[in-house]
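Entry type: protein chain
Record version: 2
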Amino acid sequence: MTDTAIPAGAGAPASPSVAANGFVSLGLAPELLQAVSSLGFTAPTAVQDRVIPLAMGQGASQDGFIDLMVSSQTGSGKTAAFLLPVLHTLLAQHEQKKDQERAAFERACAEAEAKGQPAPRRPKRKNPLMARHFEPAVPGALVLCPTRELAQQVAHDAIDLVQHCKGLRIASVVGGMPYQRQIAQLQNANLVVATPGRLLDLQRSGQLKLDEVQFLVVDEADRMLDLGFSDDLAEIHRLTAQRHQTMMFSATFAPRIQQLAMRVMHDGGSGVQRVQIDSPQEKHENIKQVLYWADNAQHKRALLDHWLRDAQMDQAIVFASTQIECDALAGDLQQAGFSAVALHGALSQGLRNRRLMALRRGQVQILVATDVAARGIDVPTITHVFNFGLPMKAEDYTHRIGRTGRAGRQGLAVTFAEFRDRRRIFDIETFTRQPFETAVVPGLEPTQRPPQPMRARRPEGAGRGHGGGRPGYGGGQRREGFSHRRDDQRGPQAAFGEGRFAPAGRRGESQNRERPRAGGRAGASRSRGMR
């Protein structure tokens, strides 16, 4: 494999005078440039600037395409990095096909005129929804996503990018949705965004064929492996063996990801070019991260209440560890007067779609979610992410906080942890190679001594603590732009109004503890269809 490393921070948005030509220099079709401009994007990000030319064949051999394996932080613009070159090629092929059909019709007309026969009529367009006209869909490009939410977000972005392109159709195929509706959407689709389980179901039932797929994109490959899609990917690899190009996007180049690449790339991955823009250990420069230690669940809820009443907050995602905790927390927030809804894998897909749409439209201010929402939500107005329950895996932390501060915007990620969670906090610090900045809220200080901060891989020049205070404390410092003031000083036991936030004893304390459910990861369904 060929390594291409790009320094962090490269490809930042250009100045207004240069931004107009940012995407033009990549050689994209005018229709795509018009869509990018109308969406408000003025210059490519680092991953887009590097990947798009390679995906369009820069430096390729005679076949014109290169297999790519790309690693970049969440929120860095990976979706457009693979959608734009794929759509560019599909659009060029569509225009070429139209020109060929037009030339063939004009030739038939000329031959009929030479023979003195009436000119032939153009073929009447058939309704693909009628049973006698049905033909299996034959998409030219396929994007695989691990979760339904991510697949729908990618499909939404693709539809935005083809708004000025005539003849290109986008279809989304995910579990939990009616089959007939998805079969209708598949007709004449050029690009299909799908989760592996539902895609293979439709392929096996004869609703679509994959033998004409030219481009295969595997998004969030590391998450694919976590959800057990390795065998499905191998099957899709076999069904699309004639494709020209494979692109794989993952948070890391871990050994298991490289093994997956060897299974789904051409020639066992020997000719893959690797592009690493940054890594999970790179600090999110535009996301402020802070940790608050809490004595117990009630203390955490009081801290959460303090931050949810911050005037700087527009919209927020509160992550819970389990589905039970997610529902309970959302219900208590609603009783406290907040506009909040829950999102987790046990909900029907229709309800999940409606709640996500309400979040995007600004009808909901707070989304309480399990890790099902850690990838696939791109809402610019999400200013805060709260880790009320810690993730089961340390790497999921980076995907959680990536829901804010996207595309160069500023965001805040707040983590609440009890002292019994110190091992998981240290695991996150070890994975990210960054110690948490700890802080306290005046009047809501923990009564216990916080654990020592991570000592391994401590940045050079770092002292024993943060801000000159005790180790692990932030010294109660006020951060610019985010107020720590409390209107009342009732202590950690008072939360969400006049006792409206149910204490742990009301619902049973076991429901609110950050424990994984028996038999698997908390808040995550093992069924492929639920993703």
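Comment: The chain has two domains: 48-120+128-276, 287-512.
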